[in-house]
Amino acid sequence: MHSAQELVSQIEALTSLPDVYMRVREQLESPAGSVVTVARLVSADPALSARLLHLVNSPLFGQRGRVEDIVRAVALLGLQQVHDLVLAMSLQGIFAGVRPARLDMRRFWRNSLLTGLAARAAGIAAGLTAGERLFLIGVLADTGHLVMYQTVPELAAAARLAAQAGDEALDAAERRLVGCDFAELGAALLDRWQLPDRFGTAVGAQMLPRLGGAYAAEAATINLARRIAEADELDLPSSAAAARVAPETWGLLGLEAERLAGLREGAEIDFAAYLSLFFPRR
Fold first, then answer.
1. Sorted alphabetically, which SUPFAM superfamilies does this protein's record hold (predicted)?
2. CA-closest candidate to residue 70, choices 50, 92, 97
């Protein structure tokens, strides 16, 4: 049996984050953090700066007037949002060296992006702040499966088969066969990256949101978003997806099951635009 920390430590490719992101994070965490310094860091990476300008000028952010200067873009977005967006736009590069033989990466990224968009929509509907942060947390919610399929692929595949047979939930099958589940693995990875507490806590509690403590609502958005992404993958009607959501999740978000169809529609409408921005070659 394996622990989450043990499996995460086995993947050297995932133990460090891009230098530009780390330096942006230093600015965010510093009392002397500067918009001008962050803009300079982003500008040093032409591809990143071009994508950030593309993003801030897209209908997704609704800016009036074209923004052509990185300093202005960073000032408009704010340091925290730039931090989150730089990390989101770096994900493709971070995971470039991870190619699990038994995991369809195209489907993985599609589901992760939809989960992020649905978590963002659910958070906004529930009155939570920092919608783009919820988007990023949602995108990162299934990273534990990347670790699992890279380190113990046979056990991961066996757990998925057991869940598909209807014998038990996927996370339960993983704990039985692997020793930990994908949510624990994801939390361990995000903690290793030293991301803010809400990231690892929400991802780790996504299957039982009430265990998320101060971040239970964030965990609930992921729980709901996973059902929406699952419905998209399996081509299920929204009513069936809503029936699979635990009452606890609806209660933590203060939403009714009837809201799921609208949240799903919004996530699916935004999918193509976000795919081109965050995963341009997928």
1. HD-domain/PDEase-like
2. 50
Cα separation, 200 vs 194, whole angstroms:
9
Place of tokens 């300079």: 40
Q: Which of 113, 174, 112 is nearest to 149 (CA)?
A: 174
Could you give all domains of the chain from N- to C-terminal order, each with its CATH number? Answer: 4-278 (1.10.3210.10)
Per the CB < 8 A criterion, the answer to whether 72 and 63 are in contact is no
Q: Cβ–Cβ contacts within 10 Å for residue 30, how many?
A: 11
279 within 8 A of 117, measured Cβ to Cβ: no
Place of tokens 């299957």: 207
Write out the two tokens for 123. Answer: 């958070």
Length of the chain in terms of residues written: 282
Give pLDDT tens digits for 194-250: 888 999 999 999 999 999 999 999 999 999 999 999 999 999 999 999 999 999 999
- For residue 266, the Cα-to-chain-centroid distance in whole angstroms is 17
Q: Of 162, 197, 194, whose CA–CA distance to 177 is shortest? A: 162
Please report, for residues 19, 43, 224, the alpha-carbon distance to residue 34 in angstroms, rounded to integers and kept in the order given. Answer: 17, 14, 36
Confidence (pTM)? 0.89
